[in-house]
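Continuing the series of single-chain predictions for the mutant panel. This is the parent chain; the variants come on the following pages.
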Amino acid sequence: MDVLRTRIAEAWGSISKAERTVCSFLLKSSPEHLIYASAATLGAESGTSNATIVRTFQKLGYSGFSDLKRELAAPFTSSVPPEERLKQRIAHLGDSMRTNADSVWTEAEELIALTRETLELEELSISIDVIARARRTFVYGIGLSSVAALHLSMRLRRIGVDSSHLHDDGFLLADQLLPMSGDDVLVMFVPGRLTPVIDSLIEHARALGCPVVFCTDELEESLKGRAAAVLKVPRTPTGISDENFIALLVSDILLQGITVVMPESALSASHSLTILRQSHGY
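Parent structure:
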């Protein structure tokens, strides 16, 4: 909230009366309320409109409401136990099926809008280029991030890109790394925490001369100096939608780009997959 207060103070002289009303309402609200609210809800509660709410956030330097939510949620998620956050989410959503459904749809729309705003096309282009040129793509992700990593690895193979999913986080990870060389590329889903294992994996790839592509939310600035490219992948600030939702969409954007630059490989792999399925009765 300190950052929000500072932004409001700096913008106060240049915003409209309606936008000041929104700012005053924001300052009176708790972080928890703002994290779980929608722009439409804030518009109704502040006596303004959805459009005024969105415009106010932009005047304050945010790309959208979801951007503010992520900023507010960072200290909230690190200091409040998961069970307490779940209690607050349940209390906010209530037992209305329509409210629950609307909350999921709204957050999904906000995250998509935020990603379209923050995903840099240059970083995306570099990522597609290094994957298309590589001998093999190693894709790393553990925990919930392993879902996005498996998705990308499997679909890369389906368009003719040799790919391996690195899913171990202990003793067996070393075995999975043995084939890696400087002709490969490492794609890592590292949302918000840099563990010793992740750090050592990055250094191993760099020592081999293997370029690294990061898909991350909170570590963008700290990882840029260690990567060929960094793709901004915002996560849910509330837990209402799935952790991998945006990561899967960004993976699909990568896959579409690679398909465009490697059409013959993609067509050949698709044909081979069809033949294999038919030979096995599928």
